[in-house]
């Protein structure tokens, strides 16, 4: 039997908002360089970004019936994230389904396979992150689970995980770690703001500001003056 779970623990919206303030790269670094979904999955427009709880969908390659099921049962603010075999020439999500997703108030659509109608989706402004763009359509035949753990882009994503995406890519944060990750993100941003201020002063070399001078010497780097 194939199951669709309509109920799962969604993270506190305040936690989602706290994570959403930061970039995907900052989150990835702050939580110990983990959670990064494959670099192949990128926004169809670099201005697109999102943050929300995951609704997970397992679809068959070249088949979008479960994409439509997942979107149907998702709630406002959710991120529908679909693994479909990384089939690059499969355009399983287009402007019609994007319009439905946007009207429903979903936060984003993410897939390791392809999408199409990219120009119309850009005009719509609905965040879509995909492994490819392809004009080839899909069938509607094979069932798959919704809101069960999925493997996508080198990560295991569970329903309710916090997903953040922006121009650099997509990262996963476990809800139970989100408060600490947000704190570490803020620490990192504050630290980097101080470093940028140091660079603007131009009083010290970059390698000095970054604390690399002694490390470079220890590795045998010789600077002739």
UniProtKB/TrEMBL annotation:
GO biological process: carboxylic acid catabolic process; monocarboxylic acid metabolic process; phenol-containing compound catabolic process
Keyword Nucleus in annotation: no
Cofactor(s) the protein requires to work: a divalent metal cation; Mg(2+)
Protein keywords: Lyase, Magnesium, Metal-binding
Keyword Magnesium: yes
Catalyzed reactions: oxaloacetate + H(+) = pyruvate + CO2; 4-hydroxy-4-methyl-2-oxoglutarate = 2 pyruvate
Gene Ontology MF: a single term: metal ion binding
Catalytic activity, EC: 4.1.1.112, 4.1.3.17
Pfam assignment, any one: RraA-like
Binding site for Mg(2+): 117
Its job: Catalyzes the aldol cleavage of 4-hydroxy-4-methyl-2-oxoglutarate (HMG) into 2 molecules of pyruvate. Also contains a secondary oxaloacetate (OAA) decarboxylase activity due to the common pyruvate enolate transition state formed following C-C bond cleavage in the retro-aldol and decarboxylation reactions.
Complex and partners: Homotrimer. Homohexamer.
Name under which the protein is recorded: Putative 4-hydroxy-4-methyl-2-oxoglutarate aldolase
Lineage: Bacteria, Bacillati, Actinomycetota, Actinomycetes, Micrococcales
